[in-house]
Amino acid sequence: MKLNNLPKMEWKFSARAEQLKSSMIREILKITQRPEVISFAGGLPSTDTFPVERMRAAFDSVLANSGKSALQYGPTDGYLPLREYIAASLSKDGTTIEADQILMTSGSQQGLDLLGKVLLDEGSKALVESPSYLGALQAFSVYRPEFVAVEMDENGLIPSSVAAKGAGARLLYCLPNFQNPTGLTLSQQRRTELVKTCANLGIPLLEDDPYGALCYRGEPMSKMLNMNPEGVIYMGSFSKVLTPGIRLGYVVAPRTLTRKLEQAKQATDLHTAQLTQMAVYEVIKDGFLEQHIPTIRALYSSQCDVMLDALNKFFPKGVTWTKPDGGMFIWVKLPQHIDSMALATESIAQNVAFVPGVPFYAGAPETNTMRLSFVTVSPAKIYEGIERLGKLIASKM
Amino acid sequence: MKLNNLPKMEWKFSARAEQLKSSMIREILKITQRPEVISFAGGLPSTDTFPVERMRAAFDSVLANSGKSALQYGPTDGYLPLREYIAASLSKDGTTIEADQILMTSGSQQGLDLLGKVLLDEGSKALVESPSYLGALQAFSVYRPEFVAVEMDENGLIPSSVAAKGAGARLLYCLPNFQNPTGLTLSQQRRTELVKTCANLGIPLLEDDPYGALCYRGEPMSKMLNMNPEGVIYMGSFSKVLTPGIRLGYVVAPRTLTRKLEQAKQATDLHTAQLTQMAVYEVIKDGFLEQHIPTIRALYSSQCDVMLDALNKFFPKGVTWTKPDGGMFIWVKLPQHIDSMALATESIAQNVAFVPGVPFYAGAPETNTMRLSFVTVSPAKIYEGIERLGKLIASKM
């Protein structure tokens, strides 16, 4: 029975909670679920790439053959055969990765949270690209570090900027392949330099690689993990090569750190579902990804070409954009005086959505930037949406 | 290619990570996976209670009918029909709970982590039962509160102890039904007192209820949530009534707090798998739990009776234990001079495992206590293991 006349609760949140905000992207996504909106805002993979029937068969087979163990509590570090598979796939260029260096996580996002938990104190220096992946900034910001933005150019993050600003930093967060949000790729030479710079300064180098397999042009670059497995922490995910909703990612780290991350995960959610891990292993163990990933590449690559073509056709002179070699995003720079936040509001009123660039900056933002995703909109709608957006931009010039 | 001659990384962890330790229970569990060990150490439900075929049919049906949406990114707060189901099941005693007060979590453990994240600053006062659930102590300790232990007796936590020690506390953590580790239940009168005491002091009251449905004797008590939905935060889980390995729990809170927890979850792991939530909803939506839970109760209740009988038969005079009305655990008090940590080592050497009581205390531990789980060991092995343990204890008296 409800008790009456109790004093009203005055909620007091932790300092870290006070600064938490809902991601602008997720707020925009809520608006853009209206079917009439052409949305370039999403970071969602295309459901056309989901191997639904294969996943269905795998869940069924695991539950039929190993149901009880798949549904029981499992080990915190994850399902061993899956970790062994991942370790083998990452062992190259003369570097051996072993299963006990791998912690399975509930999506790559959890890897970011655990790394923040384990590496960052309040006020710790955390180096991030400028702009950087918003989800990483959110995950780390809970632990209240001092973010230091490192500069980028068309070849990605600039190692000399790390050398200049990095002393004493607790981590450098880097998304080297087809970065979210810019679509830029860190060049091969920069990778070598960056690994050396971080090792010399004693900075753990976080290599976040959700899009690495989605390469449309050129040769895939070396992983920094393979250049220095004692100093690089690698994050991978099944979100972009299988499906994101299962929430399955992994962190590869030197064992000292892996064990600490494992303890942190135990306190956070005990372990990631065995059933999911066993089903994913069932799906991929016989080389499925080697056939499947090229089909995703083919789809996204043609979508990317369509959007680049539409941008060429419909965006006015004075606007520039990146030409990504892979991934899901194109980054647009408008003339300096155009504020993309204000533009986003007007654009949504015209049923075209994108994400303004500001939230991706930990440091001083470039207010004239925007992120476009090309993966989930049909070619006809890409042309239609980019044309409408181009006209809106032209009206501001 | 691996780079040579790089300086060795000196790992520096955050202050919160430095104090993280692996749970003693999980360490003991690793040892006790040897088949010859009779283990009363586990907190695992019996796989005999898992409705494997029903889960299998549900996963199959969801993937067949809604595969793409089940495998895509989903909302942070969780799958709405499931939240509506939970809200309806918790609306009683004149209190209405609504779906927007509920956040689905990756197991109840994640609810604890998120509540720590959002409510605790370093040095915040956190009131916990003495002894308390180890997983909660672990989850909260990451946020470095000052734990204050509140006293318990055979009727559970003592509200006057909260009144005496509680001023300024950021939370009180309470496990009112068949507590882990003691098996004790908070009496009806104490519940009313406790809700009033917390409301008067402005302390958020965390009601963790993983075992509530597993009631073997007497009438289920009222939920404190229903006495004061504006001041009580309720945590539920599907781990003990369906299966734990899917990692599915929920937090019910006043909306102000639910929205803050949702933001924290977004930064932590985006959301819990839609597929899992949809499959669980498929399993339970037509009232399956109402038929299924009595079968779990019947099994565990008879196991509990067997262990109580074995304790009566084989434990020496001078040893006392709780007689739980539900749940999974019996709490044993040995004579003061017997250290249960040392006993655990000797016991494991004789192939019988239990968890010593010390890690369950945030304050001064009672070193002569131990936790016994009765759910996963066969009756014959319960008698055998308790007899062996009884002899070992008798040899110390």
From TrEMBL, chains A, B:
Task: Provide an example Pfam family for this protein.
Answer: Aminotran_1_2
**Boundaries of every Aminotransferase class I/classII large domain copy:** 36-389
Q: Which domain of life is it from?
A: Bacteria
Q: Which GO terms describe its biological process?
A: alpha-amino acid metabolic process
**Entry cofactors:** pyridoxal 5'-phosphate
**MF annotations from Gene Ontology:** pyridoxal phosphate binding; transaminase activity
InterPro entries, from UniProt? Answer: Aminotransferase_I/II_large, Class-I_PLP-dep_aminotransf, PyrdxlP-dep_Trfase, PyrdxlP-dep_Trfase_major, PyrdxlP-dep_Trfase_small
Q: Does the keyword Transferase apply?
A: yes
Keywords attached to this entry: Aminotransferase, Pyridoxal phosphate, Transferase
Q: Which PANTHER family match?
A: AMINOTRANSFERASE (PTHR42790), KYNURENINE_ALPHA-AMINOADIPATE AMINOTRANSFERASE, MITOCHONDRIAL (PTHR42790:SF19)
The family classification in the record reads: Belongs to the class-I pyridoxal-phosphate-dependent aminotransferase family.
Question: Quaternary structure?
Answer: Homodimer.
State the protein's name: PLP-dependent aminotransferase family protein
**What is the species of this protein?**
Sapientia aquatica
The root-end lineage is: Bacteria, Pseudomonadati, Pseudomonadota, Betaproteobacteria, Burkholderiales
